[in-house]
């Protein structure tokens, strides 16, 4: 039976007495349709009036009650919880008034009750959705939300609730038990798995990410495969959003973070130290022993006072004990300019208040020589993890060390540039 058939059922005797047929002498059919139209309009008007009353009075009452718990109340208001809850009032009023307004018309009464039931289910779903949003927003304000994100779980819960709501609506429209539709889901399982594949994978991956604490909001991650290099701003059921340093947004499937490799800089951020790992390439042709002239020059550097004093004693003691012939520089032990420079680098970094001295690696080392010179590597940690501050500290350190090379009679290695070749050509032309 469709809606037309339902509306075509004759009215009761009492309804016919107050029908338009008695007033205007119209036909019975027109009187029936007019009477039912008036009843429907009255129900709509009653619903509108009760809705306006609920929003104007009850909504203010709910908000005043929520003021007793300001934090939670604001979250509910922001999620439109009370506004959605107010829509339940007209449904209740219509359900109570429909037996009186459509008295004697069973078809209209069934139709009205079905419409009200469906409406209540929809409003109930909206209220539950608003409640979940309010709880999630409130939860995300706490520090624990960074360690245990629940947005993916809340989205999965919404899917389950909405699915149950759809089943209830179908059971009302088709006048079947909800179990009838639930039992039929077995045949649709494969289809549902195909449709919601990403959502299911995302849910499982989201749980793994949370339990294993792999990634959370605020983490700096790198995942070159997806072009991600920045802060995690959202962990949801279907995606993990990363705001890159150029302010672009990269969306990564949660299951990709479980299956593929990525770098998480959280440990660095929490440690309070950011690593400097950079080398200065020394021209091998500038490496030599320290002679008296250079020693006199180095002795003016205050940071080397302790080092030079100790080394001179050790060298002199060894050479005397071994009766070394000092006429040949390679005999015995001698200071080198590159070794002294390494000692200066360590002393300079120790004197820098921006460098971690304890608890983290502090190393100035010489790497193996290459065709690009002799690398002197600085491996230390800055006590400021902010990117801009870190880069400023690193830049100041290497500006100073590179500028200091000349005091040790050292040269930085550099590939020949156009200017170098031009100077060489000019020099050769002048000789000729």
Task: Report on this structure.
By secondary structure, the chain is an alpha+beta fold. It folds into 3 domains: 3-207, no CATH class; 212-266, SH3 type barrels; 274-419, Alpha-Beta Plaits (2-Layer Sandwich). It is built from 20 helices and 8 strands. The chain has helices spanning 3-7, 13-17, 20-24, 28-66, 70-78, 81-85, 88-101, 106-140, 144-147, 151-173, 178-184, 189-195, 197-211, 254-259, 266-271, 292-298, 305-322, 337-350, 387-404, 418-431; strands at residues 220-223, 228-235, 240-244, 249-252, 263-264, 274-282, 363-366, 374-382. The strands form 2 sheets. Strands 4-3-2-1-5 form a 5-stranded antiparallel beta sheet. A hairpin with a 4-residue loop joins strand 3 and strand 4 (249-252). The longest helix has 39 residues, at 28-66. The chain is elongated and about 125 Å long. It starts with a helix and ends with a helix. 18% of the residues are buried. Residues 1-21 have low confidence and may be disordered.
Number of domains: 3
Order of helices and strands: HHHHHHHHHHHHHEEEEHEHEHHHEEHH
Structural class, judged by helices and strands? alpha+beta
Number of helices: 20
Mean pLDDT: 78
Q: pLDDT under 50 segments (min length 5)?
A: 1-21
Widest sheet, order of strands: 4-3-2-1-5
Shape: elongated
Main β sheet profile: 5 strands, antiparallel
The number of strands is: 8
The helicity comes to 55-70%
- Rg is 41 Å
Terminal Cα span: 112 Å
Strand proportion: 5-15%
Multimerization state: single chain
């Amino acid at each position: 039976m469709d809606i037309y058939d339902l509306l075509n059922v004759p009215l009761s005797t009492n309804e016919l007495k107050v029908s338009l047929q008695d007033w205007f002498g119209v036909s019975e059919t027109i009187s029936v349709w007019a009477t039912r139209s008036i009843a429907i309009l009255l129900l709509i008007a009653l619903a509108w009036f009760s809705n306006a009353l609920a929003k104007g009075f009850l909504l203010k009452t709910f908000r005043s009650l929520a003021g007793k718990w300001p934090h939670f109340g604001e979250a509910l208001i922001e999620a439109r919880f009370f506004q959605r809850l107010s829509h339940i009032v007209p449904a209740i009023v219509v359900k109570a008034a429909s037996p009186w307004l459509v008295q004697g018309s069973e078809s209209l009464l069934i139709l009205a009750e079905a419409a009200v039931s469906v409406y209540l289910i929809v409003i109930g779903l909206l209220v539950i959705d608003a409640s979940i949003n309010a709880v999630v927003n409130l939860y995300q304000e706490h520090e624990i939300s960074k360690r245990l994100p629940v947005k993916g779980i809340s989205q999965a819960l919404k899917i389950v609730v909405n699915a149950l709501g759809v089943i209830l609506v179908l059971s009302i429209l088709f006048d079947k038990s909800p179990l009838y539709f639930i039992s039929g889901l077995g045949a649709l399982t494969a289809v549902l798995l195909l449709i919601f594949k990403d959502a299911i994978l995302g849910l499982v991956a989201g749980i793994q990410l949370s339990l294993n604490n792999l990634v959370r909001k605020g983490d700096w991650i790198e995942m070159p495969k997806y072009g991600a290099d920045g802060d995690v701003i959202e962990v949801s059921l279907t995606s993990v959003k990363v705001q890159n340093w150029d302010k672009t947004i990269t969306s990564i499937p949660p299951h990709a973070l479980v299956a593929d490799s990525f770098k998480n800089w959280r440990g660095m951020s929490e440690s309070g130290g950011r690593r400097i790992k950079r080398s200065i390439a020394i021209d091998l042709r500038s490496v030599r022993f320290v002679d008296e002239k250079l020693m006199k020059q180095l002795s003016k550097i205050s940071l080397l006072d302790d080092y030079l004093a100790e080394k001179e004693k050790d060298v002199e003691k060894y050479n005397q004990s071994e009766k070394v012939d000092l006429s040949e520089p390679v005999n015995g032990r001698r200071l080198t300019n590159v070794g002294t420079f390494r000692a200066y680098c360590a002393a300079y970094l120790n004197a820098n208040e921006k460098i971690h001295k304890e608890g983290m690696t502090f190393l100035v080392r010489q790497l193996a020589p290459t065709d690009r010179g002799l690398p002197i590597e600085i491996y230390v940690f800055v006590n400021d993890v902010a990117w801009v501050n870190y880069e400023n500290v690193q830049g100041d350190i290497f500006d100073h060390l590179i500028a200091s090379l000349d005091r040790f009679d050292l040269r930085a290695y550099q590939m020949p540039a156009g200017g170098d070749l031009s100077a060489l050509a000019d020099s050769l032309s002048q000789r000729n």
